């Protein structure tokens, strides 16, 4: 049967997602948040989720919607601070002991996800050595420099945003929209891309930024295209 | 005493950026340095989210929500720019390909230990972002920060009090009253603001200062509030 990874609704894009899942959310600084799918995840209602997202509190991401709805029990991130003086929804639940938090240096975060999708169970990194974030981590010296051992991160689901997709799941990103999306797609069992436009026709090979082999489902928010 | 403003501190740091460097700028005062590069220096600014060749902030109406820097500012690209994903961007950072990162700071110790990510604000969540990777792995770490806290405590110390961002990494500190190198022997003052004596600078510093034989006066041009000279 001819491959076609396009689905016709956000609900269909998240079909089969279970309670207790680890969910990776791409996005950085307003670029690459799969906000339609994040809202669909709230409507889906899966709970006991572990979120893997760069920020737990970015105002342009809808991550806060699934945090506020009580669907999240743990967050792995690099930034968990609300901007205002008032505590963000995440900070309130974290302070109340309702959400567990793991904070990682951003390069360690990105590489742990990359490793997770690349068959590498753990790696040594110089980032974070000698800091509170590396407390309790295994340390090893290579060539006179100290490194900490970080385990890879994998997930059940990844939600990422791209500009264009084709029916094969090939993606092209606009500028800094990619950020964590490519590595998250490789590290998750089910990778769902939200795109502006998904065409039947193939994206020219030289314009494919992420091969469709890593993408399971594609949901177009603006136009299905032909 | 002639203290430097935030823009003047950024101007001073910008004078030390060399032609051809790949530079990462932290949020806050450091991003201002890109406004004050001396003419003739062809420099690429890298942003941790994967932008190599950050240009000026985008004008309203010309901005693209997918083209942002580490501080979520909507930016433009310079000629020759490229954009990569986050794992590649941090491979660039960790791999030592960044010539210099200029970061805001809370504290620097005389051995180069550096604290800039956690000021122990009660109840607020942590925010580390790319600071630890940049501080630990860039070829040089330059810090821009006021010499003293609002309540007058020194930020240059024998040992950092706040949680570290990275150990033994800071190479140079630009404050509002001095430019100070971090050497194997400790702090070495290269420039000191007009109207402040060596003893006064020492009194405002939490570790022993040495003074370079050619210690100069720290000067910066007048810069208006909006940042244009």
Please describe what this structure looks like.
The complex is a heterodimer of chains A (226) and B (229). With 226 residues, chain A is of the alpha/beta class. Chain A has a domain of 156 residues: Glutaconate Coenzyme A-transferase, CATH 3.40.1080.10. Chain A has six helices and twelve strands. In chain A, α5 packs across α6. The mean pLDDT of chain A is 96. Chain B has one domain: Glutaconate Coenzyme A-transferase (3-Layer(aba) Sandwich). Chain B is 15% helix and 30% strand. In chain B, the strands form two sheets. Chain B has a ten-stranded mixed beta sheet with strand order 4-3-2-1-5-8-10-11-12-13. A three-stranded mixed beta sheet of chain B has the order 7-6-9, with no helix packed on it. Chain B is globular, with a radius of gyration of 17 Å. The relative contact order of chain B is 0.16. The chains are: A alpha/beta (226), B alpha/beta (229). Chains A and B meet through α4, α5 and α6 of A and α3 and α4 of B.
Gist?
Chain A is an alpha/beta fold and 226 residues long.
Topology:
The complex is a heterodimer of chains A (226) and B (229).
Chain A: E1 6-7, H1 10-13, E2 22-25, H2 35-44, E3 49-53, H3 63-68, E4 72-77, H4 89-95, E5 100-103, H5 106-117, E6 122-125, E7 139-142, E8 145-151, E9 155-166, E10 171-172, H6 181-187, E11 188-199, E12 217-223
Parallel strand pairs in A: 1-12, 2-3, 2-9, 3-4, 4-5, 9-11, 11-12
Antiparallel strand pairs in A: 6-8, 7-8, 9-10
Chain B: H1 6-14, E1 22-25, H2 29-32, E2 44-47, E3 51-57, E4 75-83, H3 86-94, E5 100-104, E6 107-109, E7 114-115, H4 131-137, E8 141-144, E9 156-157, E10 170-174, E11 178-183, E12 186-193, H5 198-203, E13 209-218
Parallel strand pairs in B: 1-2, 1-5, 5-8, 6-9, 8-10, 12-13
Antiparallel strand pairs in B: 2-3, 3-4, 6-7, 10-11, 11-12
